[in-house]
Amino acid sequence: MEHDAALPGSPHPTLHAGTPRLGTPHLSTLRPGVDAPDHRGRTGLDRAGRDLDRNPGVVIREVELTSQGWHVLRRTTFDYRRRDGRWETQARETYDRGNGAVVLPYDAERGRVLLSRQFRYPAYVNDHPDGLLIEAAAGLLDEDDPVTAIRRESAEELGVHLGPLVHILDAYMSPGSVTERLHFFAAPYTPADRTGDGGGLAEDGEDIEVLELPFTEALAMTRDGRISDGKTIMLLQWAALDGPFAPAAAAR
Fold first, then answer.
1. What is the torsional sign of CA 83, 89, 95, 98?
2. 44-80, pLDDT tens digit by residue?
3. Cα 221 from Cα 210, distance rounded (Å)
4. Tens of pLDDT along 109-122?
5. Distance between CA atoms of 80 and 84, rounded to whole angstroms?
6. Which residues pair with 137 in a beta bridge?
């Protein structure tokens, strides 16, 4: 099966008053985020995935931009070759919010970890008692690399200057619909490294409470449901099994 020809990219046309040139879209027909800048100055948001060819059993047919707020929702139609060799056409919606990073700051000598608590409306509307989730500090990369981004988030959210970062793993947290890949880190800290108040950025609507908890209590909270955030559970379990609070680490 051959790929459809990709739509050729073209620079955004300059529009002048009066009758538009032949073949030039009229101002009223331009679509924000597609062939005109959206509120974040982005164009070509419907191009994502059109040139993918790493998997010969997937042929991208159409990418439709269905919504763009701060992040982007797309509906992609593609041909998929099943394991028995048959081809079928499928469509999937994907939510693109960029990639992110998360970190578990730990003080092995005092047996403590630094976490945060903040209101999460999506959890609140889906049966969480009050929407106040206890989490490891995390954030989107934006234009930064993962290490730079997580140091920035740790300073903003927790008010801590981290020691050497250890990369734990990368994971797709909700691969059925969300494109985000999350980079997991851990880093030591001491009381002297807590140089700020944390709390996040008020201009971004953040209102974050900083929690310094005994590691044993934090781990117990993953078992009784007081900590129900996936990324935080993964980091705390890593710390118990392979990290600074593992039996092998304690024996050293």
1. positive
2. 878 888 999 999 999 999 999 988 777 899 999 999 9
3. 16
4. 999 999 999 999 99
5. 11
6. 103
